[in-house]
Amino acid sequence: MLKNALDILRCPVDFERLVLDRGEPEADGHILEGDLRCESCGAGYPIRKGVPHLVPEDAAIVDGADMGALQERTIERFGWEWQTYEQWGWLPDYPDVAEAQEKFYGGLIEHTHAAFWGKSLFEKEDLRPGDLVLDAGCGNGRFSKCASEMGATVVGVDLGWGVYSAFNNLRHKKNVHIARGDIFRLPVSDGTFDRVFSIGVLMHTGNAKLATQKISMKAKTNGLVLAHVYGKGLPTYEFLDKSIRYVTTRLSIDSQVRFARNMARFCRYLKREPWKFRLYQKIFPHLNLLPTEHHMYDWWSAPIATHHTLGEVGGWFNEVNCNVVRSNPNVDDAASDRNRRHQHAAVTVLARRKR
């Protein structure tokens, strides 16, 4: 943690300023171990492995979002994912292994850039030098990196243990701060950020509507807020997805990894001969296969994964005085069967905060 992060980070209980009680900076300016204290309420928060842990003691139930066993397992699964796949999305080139382009589909830094600009709906001019940007649910920090490259100062927050991977990946960047925090009580003040985004996270919180509205409060007046969630598919797809997830989410992590590995291997087998893959898609049009173990684990492991429509997400923003600026053009409530057939039919909404 860089000491100037305290200019932005706040106590998650009363949102007052934090002071450094203990800790000395390393040669690069980061404080790796120490303690923070709220100037107002006196609550203490540790700094571990360079990451301030700004999670309130009563985080089990925050503003109506019950962090029960399912939520704890979801956090555990994603924490394991981003520590295990720490370099996913950061690779400069394909490793020298068999089927590398299939096994590491989506894992290169160029894929991260494409995913960020494709999923966020931001235009390049939307992220300006000097902007303050919040990445709500930063995982291993790959999208925080993209925003920081535009000259913005980025705060990446996540409740999972992937924050350690994010810190390791971004430690060299002086315009990025990583903190562990709860999306329902983010450790920053309302009305602070020029841009706020959450990509692939809100639907795993247990209350996607509340989470979306909470992150919206962190934007300044006229600031932009981005929510990217899973889209709601056709009834057949929803039934199959829930049925498979009912089994996979109850497996141990080791068993989930084996399942993901076998699904990815099966996909690569089919794709060796295109006619086989086309036949599979005709027989099982509602289940999308990907050739990477990481993607299959990411999709099937989380116990909480809600699906939403464009109308829903737009309505969440309207309730907190945010006007929709752009939305995913491929998915809406009147989408064709084909658009809503597969799991990758996401809903993305970019909104502007009015006040």
Automatic annotation (TrEMBL):
Domain called Methyltransferase type: residue spans: 134-226
Annotated source species: Rhodospira trueperi
Protein name: Methyltransferase domain-containing protein
A Pfam family it matches: Methyltransf_11
InterPro entries noted in UniProt: Methyltransf_11, SAM-dependent_MTases_sf, Trm112-like
GO molecular-function terms, A-Z: S-adenosylmethionine-dependent methyltransferase activity
Keywords linked to the UniProt accession: Methyltransferase, Transferase
Domain of life according to the entry: Bacteria
GO terms for biological process, alphabetical: methylation
